[in-house]
Each structure stands twice: as structure tokens, then as C-alpha cells.
Amino acid sequence: MSRSPLKRYGGWLSLLRPPNLLTVPGDPIAGAMLAVLGGAEFSFLYMLPTVGAALLLYMGGLIGNDCFDYREDAKTRPTRPLPSGSVSRRSAMVAAVVFTLAGIGVASSAGLPACIVSVLLATAVWSYNGLTKKFSFLGSLNMGICRGLSLLLGATGVGWMPRDPDVVLIGCVGLILYVGAVTLLAERETEQVRIPIRRWLPAAVNLVTMGSIVLLSGSWNYAFILLAASAVAWPIVLGVRLGIAPPPAGIVPSIGGFIRGLLLLQAAFSALLWPTGAVVACVILLAWPVNVYLARQFYAS
């Protein structure tokens, strides 16, 4: 008997983790805003392809991740789309490859530098899925690098090129470390483990990142200060909620909250470019309530 369309499409949506997808466009957008702050010329024409490319590469990575995790999910998460049979492994792998190639193709329309970064991003994504996630620190760092490259994708799309340390590189490193810290929290989400120090790492990273950007650029405004403070306060709140040894039922939703915190980080980066970036920051934050709603419907970690 064939599966119902609702079940089939519901399985694909679950693979794509809709709450997480909403946090992806902000990476290249924030990268573009930081690049313009550093002297690059802003252009929607070249920024939009990098946003599309980031989404495609992220979707390819998400689906590929479930393909590689099939055996583990069959034991610990049997209701996931692949072990439950709502999506076939073959179809999922084909989709993952197609999304990845499409992402590189879309990025190439923003120029050669963006194309190169997209290839590096695709390599990092598949390296994580197939190898590095088996190793705690290396896998967490690799996951962070994926997000950092997503930010660089947006920066290169508007003409930024690597040079002496500037706000783009500070933002990139900050994003890498934040996502890496969150990934460390999520790596044993099905077990009850002690995390006395680990739960404060995301907040500490954001504090150092925001301070470094202000010191390096000498730029700030009230919108940035408000958003930067929120980007630090939010993971502190989540850390308090988690406690020292949270049960799996507490870790899983908290990881979704930490991922949602990326929106605050992206908005703060964007708000530095006054006043255009402040408007962009508001647009990024519109995804927050939608993310909260979707997190109740779909798996986010």
C-alpha cells in the first residue's frame, strides 16, 4: 500500500527541520552587512543568491545527516523519517546531493569568490555528516565552521575579500565558536550528563564576540547594543534553565532555543550598519515567533 501524500511530505519536512531553516538566511545576510560596514559595496543583486545557496546547502546537509545517521536513529529515534519508512533512504540521498549541487550553482551566480566559499561549505557539510561528527570536539568545530562559511558566503557575495582581521572575520569566528559550543551541548542529548561549564560557553562566546567587534570597528549604536545584550542574555537564560545535569527532555528543547539564538546574533551583526542594517535586523527577528511555533511541530536538534 502506498503512503499517503500527507505522511510523505510530513516526512520530508521533518528531515528539513523547519525551525532550523529559518535561522539560515541570517548568516549570509549578516555577513553582507558586516562586509559593507568594512567598506564593501552593498548589492541585493549579489546578496540574494548567497542566501538561496546557503539554504540549499543547509537542506542538503540536513537530509544527508539523516542518511548517515540511519542506523543510530533506528535504535534511538525510530520515529525519524528514514527508519520509520516515511521517506526512503535512496530518495533522501538523491535529494541531499541535488540540493548541494544546486547550492553551489546558485552561489556561482554571485561571482567566483562566492562559488569557492560554497564549495568549501559543501565540503565542510559532508565532512561533518560522514566523518567528523564521530569525534566530539572535531565534530562540534566542524559544525561551527559550516555556519561561519555561510556568513562568509554572504560577505563574498557583496565583494568582500580576505585581508587583515576585520569585522567579517570576527563575526565568522564568533559564529563558529557559538555553534560549536551549542553542538557540544547537543552531542549527548539522549543521555543525562553533567554540563556545569559547557552550558555557559555559548553566552561567553557571544560576549567576547560583541566586545571584539566594537573594539575593532569602533562602531556601535543603540540598536546594536540592545541586540548584542540580548544575544548574550538569551543563552544565559537557557543555561540557567538547563541546570548542571539536565534530563534529555530538558536538553532537546533547549538546543532548539540555542539555535534560535542565532537570530539575535545575526541581527546584532546586521544592526551595526546603521540605519540599513537596523531595518535588516528587524526583518531577521521576524523569524523568531515563526521559529517558536515550528519548534512545537518539528524536531529541531
List keywords for this structure.
301 residues; single chain; globular; 0% strand; mainly alpha; Tetracycline Repressor, domain 2
Written description of the protein model:
The protein is mostly helical. The chain has a single domain, classed as Orthogonal Bundle (Tetracycline Repressor, domain 2), CATH 1.10.357. Helices cover 75% and strands 0% of the residues. The protein is built from 16 helices and no strands. It has helices spanning 5-16, 18-21, 26-37, 44-68, 70-76, 81-84, 89-108, 112-130, 136-157, 167-186, 201-217, 222-242, 248-260, 262-271, 276-285, 287-295. α3 (26-37) runs antiparallel to α10 (167-186), α4 (44-68) packs antiparallel against α9 (136-157) and α7 runs antiparallel to α8 (112-130). The mean pLDDT is 90.
**How many beta-strand segments?**
0
Quick one: overall form?
globular
Please describe the biggest sheet, giving its number of strands, its sense, and whether it closes into a barrel: none
Portion in beta strands: under 5%
CATH-derived topology: Tetracycline Repressor, domain 2
Task: Output the structural class.
Answer: mainly alpha
Treating each run of at least 4 consecutive H or I residues as one helix, how many helices?
16
CATH class annotation = Mainly Alpha
SSE diagram, text form:
Layout: H1 5-16, H2 18-21, H3 26-37, H4 44-68, H5 70-76, H6 81-84, H7 89-108, H8 112-130, H9 136-157, H10 167-186, H11 201-217, H12 222-242, H13 248-260, H14 262-271, H15 276-285, H16 287-295
